[in-house]
Design brief:
Radius of gyration: 23 Å
Largest sheet: 2 strands, antiparallel
CATH superfamily of the largest domain: MFS general substrate transporter like domains
Number of strands: 6
Low-confidence stretches: 1-9, 504-518
Shape: globular
CATH topology of the largest domain: Growth Hormone, Chain: A
Strand order of the largest sheet: 1-2
Helix content: over 70%
Strand content: under 5%
Number of helices: 20
Number of domains: 3
Distance between the termini: 26 Å
Bound molecules: glutamine
Order of helices and strands: HEEHHHHHHHHHHHEEEHHEHHHHHH
Length: 518
């Protein structure tokens, strides 16, 4: 591959990146506006009792009930990325999957405008399906804009990540104000309107996406992905079958001792783990197998990272509402607006962080993605130290300063920049091409599991108190990050130089591509 690929004709570019990137950027920006706008309201809407102000009645649930549903919802949104990725791989391609996902999202947010409880659940269900189809596939399409070894890829993902957060920032700055003035359902409606904008932008930009995300019907056996065949082979592979049976038994026990929701989740995870085992077994070479394995191992970091980080929309959101002094020059800052800090910091620091890595790359000293991910966990973990200080202040004086929240979100954001765009790009480098969408789906599902973990941790705050929870997160995440750094060398060996290829190709870029960032 390599050099001959680089000599292909250039795509249309803007600021050194394919124009298609900006179409995907804008589509994802509006989609994330709708997602984060709605997410910022969700627990607050569920826990609000009264009709005392313009916001109107909420559902009046307890914190624990609200965080439990929030955990399931934010988990399912991302777990649905697995079927979303499979549908794209097997049936319609990523481009159509994104289109259908966007349409379903418009419907979902539209339904949430209605005040009935059935509309609430239906709306959430539709959003889960829509994000499941759109989110993994739009990310894979970004990767598809670049040929193997193209050095612009990481930077492309960083730009895309700014789009994500621009959407989130605009949402959290405006939705809170809309709700304060016109009520909860107007806030949900705003999310719906911007999703229509996202859809229009995506349809209008199709001419720049001709080459990417298309469904390629594959009748030749070598590249065909048949999940059915892989499952049927499971029954002829004693070791894998035994492992799958153990997982299934554990799921049934989980069903019995916990509840049906967890039972279903564990059975679903058993099915996915079995599929991944069979994919691993079927991969042709040891290099592919090792890369696949290291990708799955990196997903452990992903689950832990989001398990801590995602306190943002849940426990930290409630903490902001009830325990924080939000007065700023005589104005009470709406709780929802604190959700914009993360997005705002991303926009401020994304290019800085990306260019630090890019500069090191040019010097031939770039840190591996795995290192960046482990570092991300540690930095984010330290962010919770500020929440510990906040909780201590609250215990002493009955309120705490919002400076702690600002500092916590700052560290969370720098951590996120080290792990999240890096992981997206890492997947598109390491996943076997024919399983690209599936692996993106599995990645998002891992972030979804992190969301569920976050919900569980958040719920347990009512039992253990915020201080203990925040301190526990600091200790656990820092230890995990350090452990991954300790085993970095053997892990890196498993990538078989997937990232070094970029550096080698860099020397040949005069023949095809230019560097994007200088
Ligand atoms: N904040 C990022 C986004 O919305 C990451 C979310 C995730 O990976 N779970 O895309």
């Amino acid at each position: 591959m390599g050099t001959s690929v680089l000599k292909q004709p250039r795509q249309k570019e803007l600021f050194g990146q394919p124009i298609g990137l900006y179409i995907l950027f804008l589509t994802e920006m509006w989609e994330r506006f709708s997602y984060y706008g709605m997410r910022a309201l969700l627990v607050l809407y569920m826990t609000t009792q009264t009709i005392g102000d313009n916001r109107g009645a909420g559902l009046g649930w307890t914190n624990q009930e609200a965080l439990a549903l929030y955990g399931w919802y934010t988990m399912l949104v991302y777990v649905m990325s697995i079927p979303g990725g499979m549908i794209a791989d097997k049936l319609i391609g990523q481009k159509k999957a994104v289109l259908i996902g966007a349409i379903i999202l418009c419907l979902g947010h539209g339904v949430l405008v209605l005040t009935d409880i059935w509309a609430f659940y239906t709306g959430l269900g539709l959003v889960i399906l829509g994000v499941g189809l759109l989110k993994p596939n739009i990310s894979t399409m970004v990767g598809g804009l670049y040929k193997e070894g193209d050095i612009r890829r990481d930077k492309g993902f960083s730009i895309f990540y700014i789009g994500i957060n621009l959407g989130s920032l605009l949402a959290t700055m405006t939705v809170g104000l809309v709700v304060a003035e016109w009520g909860w359902h107007a806030g949900f409606g705003l999310a719906g309107i911007v999703m229509v904008l996202g859809l229009i932008n995506y349809v209008a930009g199709q001419k720049y996406l001709k080459e990417v995300g298309n469904y390629i019907p594959n009748n030749n056996d070598e590249n065909d992905v048949s999940y059915g065949k892989l499952y049927s082979k499971l029954f002829k592979s004693p070791k894998q079958l035994l492992f799958a049976c153990v997982l299934l038994a554990a799921s049934i026990i989980g069903w019995y001792f916990m509840d049906w929701g967890y039972g279903m989740l564990f059975i679903f995870l058993t099915a996915i783990a079995s599929l991944l085992m069979m994919i691993y077994k079927e991969l042709e070479t040891q290099v592919f197998k090792d890369r696949f394995l290291v990708l799955l191992l990196s997903f452990i970091m992903v689950i832990i990272f989001w398990g801590a980080f995602e306190q943002a929309g849940g426990l930290m959101n409630l903490y902001t509402e009830t325990n924080t002094n939000r007065m700023l020059f005589g104005w009470e800052v709406p709780t929802v607006m604190f959700q914009s800090l993360n997005a705002g910091f991303i926009i401020l620091f994304a290019t800085l962080v990306a260019s630090i890595w890019a500069k090191r790359k040019l010097k031939g000293k770039e840190a591996s993605s795995l290192f960046k991910m482990a570092l991300g966990i540690i930095i984010m973990g330290f962010g919770f130290l500020f929440m510990v200080f906040a909780a201590m202040e609250f215990e002493k004086s009955g309120t705490s300063s919002m400076t702690w929240l600002v500092l916590a979100y700052l560290f969370h954001t720098i951590g996120e920049l080290c792990i999240s765009p890096v992981a997206l790009s890492f997947i598109t480098k390491l996943a076997p091409v024919k399983y690209a969408s599936l692996m993106m789906g599995v990645y998002f599902a891992a972030t979804g599991l992190g969301n569920k973990v976050a919900g569980i941790i958040g719920e347990s705050a009512s039992e253990f108190g915020e201080l203990t929870i925040f301190l526990g997160i600091v200790i656990f995440t820092v230890i995990i990050g350090v452990l991954f750094i300790i085993i970095l060398k053997p892990l890196k060996r498993l990538t078989h130089g997937a990232e070094e290829t970029e550096r080698v190709l860099k020397n040949e870029e005069a023949e095809g591509f230019e560097l994007a960032d200088n």
